[in-house]
Amino acid sequence: AVVSTQSTGDVHSRKPGLPESCAALGAANIDRLVLRHMAGEYIRGRPKNAPEPTVVDTVAPTTPEPTTEQPTTEQPTTSAGIDNIVIPKVYPTCDCWTKECGYCSKMECTVQHDLVHSETGVQVTSVLNRKDLNSIVLYDDEGETVGKFRWNLKGIFLDGCIACRTPWRIKNAKAAEGPNNWEFTLTDGVVRIAIEGEVLYEHALRAECAMVYKRATRFAFYNMGCENSFTLLTEMVAGNRITPDCAGACTDQ
């Protein structure tokens, strides 16, 4: 802003050379300034009655003020935390119907998992069709066979309790080619089949069936072959023969 004044010859009493007409500007209560056309310049402000600042050529380094904060006990984040993440393992669906597994009688060929009280079930990847049955043998704590769960695109079976046709919604959800990811759960006595995370079949067990299958705490795979796989979750405990090559049974396949 440019202020234009006309000198009338009057002189400021304390500052010779300053016209008296400019005194009003200096005494005015100014609360803001508007700067225009000054890009690249800078300003420095100070209180009205403060002494003129001393200009120095160099800026001395400042010493940080002491802090009263208590040192933190939190450990720094390192890549070691990533190493502690447990990644579920994927194993072949090791067939328990072998001599080494005592034809599905030896517990070292089973996986310990409380199916009734767990929100997760048996997660399998296999090709779904009308011919090949996906078969899971269920055991109790004593290693006694509780029953078998079997299913394909033709039918669903649970020994002594379920025998029905596979619903169309499952048939429509299967992959056109290649394997599907599916899960069998028995949570709270309800049989469910989910494909790619979506529950497509559900059947609540009643009376004697619920009493029998609530004992299921182990499972094994029957006649499913090394080309299929299942996910060994962190809450599961695998038998000694549940290995990446099914204790040698899948080495040459």
Poorly predicted sequence stretches spanning 5 or more consecutive residues: 1-8, 78-82
Give helix % range: under 10%
- Strand arrangement across the biggest beta sheet: 7-6-5-4-11-2-13
Describe the main β-sheet briefly. 7 strands, antiparallel
Strand-residue proportion? 15-25%
Element string (H = helix, E = strand):
HHEEEEEEEHEEEHEEE
Q: What is the rounded Rg?
A: 41 Å
Shape: elongated
The secondary-structure class comes to: mainly beta
Work out the helix count.
4
Distance between the termini: 89 Å
Mean pLDDT: 81
The count of β-strands is: 13
Your description of this structure?
- The longest helix has 7 residues, at 207-213.
- Strand 9 and strand 10 form a beta hairpin.
- 19% of the residues are buried.
- By secondary structure, the chain is mainly beta.
- It is elongated.
- The strands form two sheets. Strands 7-6-5-4-11-2-13 form a seven-stranded antiparallel β-sheet, with no helix packed on it.
- The model is unreliable at 1-8 and 78-82 (pLDDT under 50).
- The chain is built from four helices and 13 strands.
Topology:
Blueprint: H1 23-27, H2 80-83, E1 89-92, E2 111-112, E3 122-126, E4 134-139, E5 145-151, E6 155-158, E7 162-165, H3 168-173, E8 180-185, E9 190-195, E10 198-204, H4 207-213, E11 218-221, E12 229-232, E13 237-238
Antiparallel strand pairs: 1-12, 2-11, 2-13, 3-8, 3-12, 4-5, 4-11, 5-6, 6-7, 8-9, 9-10
